[in-house]
Amino acid sequence: METVLSGIRSTGNLHLGNYFGAIQNFLKMQHQHICYFFIADYHSLTTHPTPSDLYHNVQQVLVEYLASGIDPEVSTLYIQSDVPEVAELYLLLNMNAYLGELERCTSFKEKLRKQPDNINAGLLTYPVLMAADILLHRATKVPVGKDQEQHLEMARTFANRFNRLYQTNYFPEPVAYHFDGNLIKIPGLDGSTKMGKSESPGNAVFLADEPAVIRKKVMAAMTDSGPQQPDQPMSQGVANLFSLLEVLSSEDTHSHFLAKYKEGSIRYGDMKKQLAEDIIAFTSPLRQRILEIGQNKEYLSRVARLGAEKARESASNTIKEVRKIIGFKPF
Ligand code: TYM
Asked: Which residues contact 9 (CB under 8 A, 6 or more apart)?
């Protein structure tokens, strides 16, 4: 049995990328391993949410995890800030994380480009906090999407560096994991290669979107003026739609439209209509559960308490061991 851990930042509603990259990937392991799934609310502070936004986002993400099928009786489902041990491990790991490697991290460079006015130290050390999340439970498998691959590589670096420095093998090496082999990246509807929370408004389909909203977003998705010449590559927008069909529609539907594309008779409108209906068929039951679970505040608070208790048990054990390894001793 291995220890599995994954998490999602609480910066907004969950979208299809989060679902297929992290949640579904996690669900496949929930009954076989020791599993932790958490809401990364400390991480979300890099964007400076107001206190009430912070609270509501965490609640919404908790509801959406539960609606997606994470079972709080089987997995340990918790909120990061309920386990302050992670902040101590983060501090300790920060002592052996170097400016150069943090500055070279792709996600940091992207933030530099996208939000030059808010380059806080939390952004720089984001991968250290993420490593602390993982190492806190000594997890070995981390179900994530492809965009997190580099962060996992850094978590391995920090784990190995700690082990070398203190001549121990306390931390195992965590790996980015996808149940069928390859890490995935769900594309956006706006022609960009990644579906994400902070992209343009038409980029992402959220699990809680109403059917009419989904139809509107999909019908507005970027395509091109028609199938390209046989020797031309497929345009990005159209390739994205085919990737989404591959994940959300039947194999027959996917190959039907691909054949039409190849013979040059495809009508993108027909393909989008089908894709929208297939997305709706997938998200409707989730949306129903989101609405139901969202009403049950008592259940949510029970889940959060249970998760915090279970997570703290493992976390405090790790911190105790780590303190001992480093040389902190009671006087
Ligand atoms: P976040 O909140 O950006 O994304 C959460 C999870 O969703 C996956 N994901 C995607 N997968 C496929 N295609 C997409 N378009 C897509 N968009 C998002 C991400 O790969 C991720 O698995 N740093 C993390 C949160 C985190 C974490 C951790 C994860 C903090 N500590 C420890 C695992 C372990 C983040 O910002 O993810």
From this structure: 40, 41, 43, 44
